[in-house]
TrEMBL record:
Region of interest: Disordered: 1-33
Ranges of residues in domain HTH marR-type: 42-183
Biased composition (Basic and acidic residues): 1-22
Originating organism: Streptomyces lichenis
Stated name of the protein: MarR family transcriptional regulator
Transmembrane segments: none
InterPro entries found in the cross-reference section: HTH_MarR-typ, MarR/SlyA-like, WH-like_DNA-bd_sf, WH_DNA-bd_sf
Length: 189
């Protein structure tokens, strides 16, 4: 996609990639919940949110512990890990991680300053550079891998491999559903 076309397309970002396809339009209006069903749904939302908040805190604390010996922080590990498979623009990393572009930009600039990542030209967009790990950045991530693999193995043993996979799939479904709900709210104004 050319940068000219991307600037005309309000759904496109600086990297020339669309956020996501528009939310599908339901063929029929959603069914109204009874007061009892609405109350139950509200309780489930609260339980889910509190569980996710708690899990987020646990993941962040464990990520800090795992990243520290490699000279990284959890945030540095997240951003560097996002570009291990292939270089990405900051906006793409932010969308994948569900955080602001500005937050990712700050971390990306620190990683570049520390020699753990570098900015590369982006053939899809002149100004939106691609972030890529350096050899030193890859070595830092490699130092985390044994402890990361150990944690994954302990969680798989605690949950069972099938339940672990089901948990990951449920969280992915929840994230997609939340995106659709938020898109519907945004479209409604």
């Amino acid at each position: 996609m050319s940068t000219h076309a991307a600037s005309k397309d309000e759904d496109a970002h600086e990297d020339g990639v669309r956020d996501r396809p528009p939310a599908p339009r339901p063929s029929e209006p959603p069914t109204e919940l009874t007061p009892v069903e609405a109350h139950l749904a509200q309780q489930l939302l609260s339980r889910t949110a509190l569980g996710v908040f708690r899990l987020n805190g646990q993941f962040l604390a464990e990520s800090e512990r795992l990243a520290r010996p490699a000279g990284l922080t959890a945030a540095w590990w997240q951003v560097l890990g996002a570009v291990m498979p292939e270089p990405q623009p900051v906006s793409g990393i932010a969308r994948t991680m569900g955080i602001t572009r500005q937050s990712v930009q700050r971390v990306a600039d620190l990683l570049v300053r520390e020699g753990l990542a570098e900015y590369l030209p982006n053939p899809a967009h002149r100004r939106a550079k691609l972030l890529a790990p350096t050899a030193e950045g890859r070595a830092s991530i490699a130092r985390i891998e044994p402890a990361h693999a150990d944690l994954a193995g302990r969680l798989a043993a605690e949950l069972g491999e099938e339940a672990f996979a089901e948990t990951a799939a449920a969280l992915e479904r929840l994230a997609r559903a939340m995106e659709r709900v938020m898109e519907t709210e945004e479209a409604a104004g």
